[in-house]
Amino acid sequence: MNNSISKAIIITLNEDVTEITELANTLDYKIIEAFYQHRDNPDVKSYIGSGKTQEIKEFIENFEGKIDLVIVDGELKPSQWFNLEKIFNVEVFDRIRLILSIFEKHADRKEAKLQVKLAQLNYERPFVRELIHRARAGEHPGLMAGGEYQVDDYYEMIKKQIKKIKEQLENIRDQRELRRSHRHTGGFYLISLAGYTNAGKSSVLNLLSGEKVKVEGKLFSTLSTITRKIDNEKIPILLTDTVGFIQNLPAYIIDAFHSTIEEIEVADVVLLVADISENNEIVANKLKVSLNELTEIGVKSPIIIILNKIDIISKNMLNEKIDFLTKRGLLKNQLFVPISTIKKENINNLLELIYKSLPQLIRFNIKLPANSDSQSLVSWIYEKAHVLDVKYNDFISLEIECNANFRDKIISQSKKLKRKNNF
Domain count of the chain? Predict the structure, then answer.
């Protein structure tokens, strides 16, 4: 076995360790063993019972090589974390800390880094309080972050950092809101991609926009919002990819990413991407989590469910899966379209569904004088709206489709041009 590979073991109260294993692999940990204990509630002292704890301790001590990390597939209380690290003499991550470490690894922009840091600091606060308590009781615990600080000094630093980061994020949020306002008044519709992590949102973004945003088959590969224009000749649409959903995230993590998640809340249409090639129960669970998250966020705009990766399964299997999800109530009364980003199947159907779902599409006509000034205005309208028809006679006649805000702007510009030309 290659000793250079970081090795980890999993402690779980759930038989299904697929997701926690994927999370570990995203951080480049190889899972050596998973220890499962069936119990309704975690042990108060060490999450698992003393017998299982001793079994794991002996496994670590007798393992040929080194176990670098113990991963608990759940949320640890500070006292449980401290006791497990003391027993195993190995670093212990719970599920939340593992996810935060992935966030830290993938955060590549200022806003994402600030959001991750805020979530990490809020996560650390109760653990640092536990360390203060242990230190004052005469124990000498290690410190999970910032070893050069005394634990009480570090706790004060956490509070100051949280306040500072929140102020920075509020400024970024204001700038983002201003950009959205400019885009709306500029005639653009705003559409957000949402869905469970690794469902294929970035692939959908690339396909619809004609861009080549990096696509990785790893969880949470997208943390920062990425906005691109949909590549089409109809309504001008901006499409934004957002951070993926995952079940059982604490409220403070969701709050830390508020300004990013807000892109979903204010979108004109939300495209909810699901990987239909997965096991039926997994697809249903992830779709349920995603729909619940959209409800929690407060989304009131139309939601189109994209069943992605149909190229991996047969048509009969696809129909069976759609029937399964419908009976679960997950597709009932919902707009949905099966697609393949690899083979570009049903993309036109998706685009038509998007156009039909856009709010306040207004058709109207304008007449302009036939001169060079009008040609400049016509070119501008083509960039910002959907020109259904244009006729050139003694004057220029246009039939246009766009949103209500931009309609007023077009009419205002055409009136100015008419007054200038006494038309």
Answer: 4
